From TrEMBL:
This is Cell division initiation protein. Residues 218-243 are annotated as: Disordered. Keywords: Cell cycle, Cell division, Coiled coil. Residues 67-98 form a coiled coil. The lineage of its organism: Bacteria, Bacillati, Actinomycetota, Actinomycetes, Pseudonocardiales. GO terms for biological process: cell division.
Length: 243
């Protein structure tokens, strides 16, 4: 974009330093230099526009990468949480099964012992069975408590992973906001640049148009049929006038 401004400044310098046309407010500009500077401006503009488009393309790439990373993090957190829940559930089920097996074994031993102790009295048998049932109930309660503790720990771990995923989503939202703001700023700068260049070119176009109209009027005056002779004294008088 610096080359565009530099070329416009050179055009202004050429017009300001151009030799004036006698009896007119116009001037004579070198066509080759003017056309060359206009070509430079034309060649410089697409490059600046491409830079602005690169900024917009980079914005889409950043948003895509952030979205992909957020999705991967959320998927990994969910997978780890499900794995922890499955492990906790399996461990609790194993402990409950062991407790039941132990209780059943103790009940079997109690029944066997009770059968052997029938001869000694029903009171001792009932006391022994009650103790066996109490121990079995205690083991079952302990297994349930361990199962609930394992499930609670799994849920807490899952909540922690989900919280980390929410942090990633928040970071993704902030990055999207920053990228969007950068895109808006790039679009604003490009619009201001286009407006400035268009205004400068319009001024130059108007100047050239006035010059062409002045030259055309001068040629028409020179070719007017009523002027059959050239008054040298009148021309000398007009040439000595300022402007």
């Amino acid at each position: 974009m610096y080359r565009v401004f530099e070329s416009l400044d050179e055009l202004v310098t050429i017009v300001e330093d151009a030799r004036g046309v006698p009896m007119t407010s116009g001037c004579v500009v070198p066509r080759g230099d003017v056309l060359e500077l206009l070509d430079d401006i034309r060649d410089a503009l697409p490059g600046e526009l491409d830079d602005a488009q690169d900024v917009l393309d980079h914005r889409d790439e950043v948003v895509g990468k952030a979205s992909e990373q957020a999705e991967q993090t959320i998927g990994q957190a969910q997978s780890e949480a499900e794995q922890l829940m499955a492990q906790a559930r399996g461990e609790a089920e194993r402990m409950v099964a062991e407790a039941r097996m132990h209780a059943e074994r103790m009940l079997a031993e109690a029944h066997s012992e009770a059968d052997r102790a029938v001869a000694t009295g029903n009171h001792e048998y009932e006391e022994f069975v009650a103790r066996a049932r109490a121990e079995a109930e205690r083991m079952v309660q302990a297994g349930r408590a361990s199962y609930e503790q394992s499930v609670e720990e799994g849920r807490a771990e899952q909540a922690l992973l989900v919280s980390q995923a929410e942090v990633v989503q928040a970071a993704h939202g902030e990055s999207s906001r920053i990228v969007e703001a950068a895109g808006v700023e790039a679009e604003r700068l490009r619009s201001e640049c286009d407006a400035y260049v268009d205004a400068k070119l319009a001024d130059f176009e108007e100047l050239l148009d006035r010059t062409l109209r002045t030259v055309g009027k001068g040629r028409q005056q020179l070719r007017a049929p009523s002027r059959t002779a050239f008054d040298y004294s009148e021309w000398e008088q007009r040439s000595s006038m300022p402007g």
